[in-house]
Design goal:
alpha+beta; binds guanosine-5'-diphosphate; 382 residues; Translation initiation factor IF-2; six-stranded antiparallel beta barrel; binds magnesium ion; six-stranded mixed sheet
Length: 382
């Protein structure tokens, strides 16, 4: 495991962490129990205790599991000839109270007003809006959980579900600590940023100052010769939101190659899931590639099932969901975790086998943590 500490190892093999610290001390390494140690150190320690320690990350373990079923998650988006454009997936980030929630709400509502009459959007964790650029209809998918925490948690689990970050900065407040944090997360993930300079309806708004402040952090506005789009908006009045959508699409077109084969077994990631009293487990899935269809066997983390219904952000029942479309999936036997990968597999049997293996692995890990600790003496006595 990456970043494992002596306490982690002690739990795994059922010994006292203090003893491990001692053994390492005698080997000439001074480490505390909670400090994370290198994989090499773990292996050396294992050899000393006559344990054969092989460091395997959960990601590697899962990759091997899928490989044993001739499956692979995430890498294969299709052959060059089969690729079709897909909408960008956007996460809204920024400092608290700068207007992330308001922006997401206004975008969702304004799209309903301009789109199909009477459509009311459902809170399903993500939604898609349409904008017209050069006479062409373009979709944009927004993940509805603002803040970089959800983003970081998903990324830590290897779920690459965001293409572009919209960084919201209140023009009356300027760049704040979480603005920089959000920016650093986007940088670390290699995700392009579009800046929404918000609250321009306010008297104290100073959008020029925001441009200057962010320039110091490497986000240079296009109008100053840089390559970052800054758009002045008001999440309150809706001013500038069309230009914001346009900036997102233009940034996607300039910086990213967003294509996937829609004609493959679908794969995606669960961005939200819960247990619904009437409908059972409900997961919102963002499709990465392929098209998810009713009746297909799927595995989602350690849950599995057959797709019974697909529901979009307007509450409409669909028969299929293409790449970048957020869709509620009904028919799972359990509630998957946010960030869990979702795969269409050959049949129910395969889905169940993969889910069961993942489930027992998770239980084993939980048990290891709870297991009784033995002293090193007891260990040597065995
Ligand atoms: P979050 O913490 O980033 O999600 O911020 P919110 O969306 O909750 O907004 C914080 C406060 O700012 C709320 O009272 C919003 O109504 C207000 N607000 C958000 N956007 C604007 C805007 O464009 N103009 C004005 N005047 N107020 C805004
Ligand atoms: Mg909020």
């Amino acid at each position: 495991r990456r970043g494992a500490s002596l306490s982690d190892l002690a739990e795994k093999i059922g010994v006292d962490a203090a003893s491990l610290v001692q053994v390492l001390f005698h080997l000439g390494e001074m480490v505390t129990a909670t400090q994370s140690v290198s994989d090499d150190t773990l292996e050396v320690l294992g050899a000393e205790l006559e344990y054969n320690i092989e460091v395997v990350s959960p990601e590697d373990e899962d990759r091997e599991l899928l490989e044993s079923f001739d499956l692979e998650f995430g890498e294969d988006l299709g052959d060059e000839d089969d690729l079709a454009a897909r909408p960008p997936v956007v996460t809204v980030m920024g400092h608290v109270d700068h207007g992330k929630t308001r922006l997401l709400d206004t975008l969702r509502k304004s799209n309903v007003a301009g789109g199909e009459a009477g459509g009311i959007t459902q809170a399903i964790g993500a939604y898609q809006v349409q904008t017209t650029i050069d006479g062409v209809d373009r979709g944009i998918t927004f993940i509805d959980t603002p803040g970089h925490e959800a983003f970081t948690a998903m990324r830590a689990r290897g779920a690459k579900s965001t293409d572009i970050a919209v960084l919201v900065v209140a023009a009356d407040d300027g760049v704040m600590p979480q603005t920089i944090e959000a920016l650093n997360h986007a940088k670390a993930a290699g995700i392009p940023v579009v800046v929404a300079v918000n609250k321009i309806d306010k008297e104290a708004a100073d959008p020029v100052r925001v441009r200057g402040e962010l320039s110091e952090f490497g986000l240079i506005p296009e109008e100053y010769g840089g390559d970052t789009q800054f758009v002045d908006v008001s999440a309150l009045t809706g001013e500038g939101l069309d230009r914001l959508l346009e900036a997102v699409v233009l940034t996607a077109d300039a910086a990213l190659d967003l294509r996937a084969n829609p004609d493959m077994p679908a794969q995606g990631v669960a961005i939200e899931a819960h247990l619904d009293k009437g409908r059972g487990p409900v997961a919102t899935v963002l499709i990465h590639r392929g098209t998810l269809r009713i009746g297909e066997s799927i595995v989602a983390g350690s849950a599995y099932g057959r797709v019974r219904a697909l529901i979009n952000d307007k509450g409409e029942n669909l028969t299929e969901a293409p790449p970048s479309m957020p869709v509620q999936v009904l028919g799972l036997t359990a509630v998957p975790g946010a960030g869990d990968n979702v795969l269409v597999v050959d049949d129910d049997r395969m889905a169940r086998q993969i889910a069961d293996k993942r489930g027992s692995r998770m239980r084993a890990a939980a048990q290891a943590v709870g297991s009784r600790r033995k002293t090193l003496d007891q260990l040597f006595e065995q």
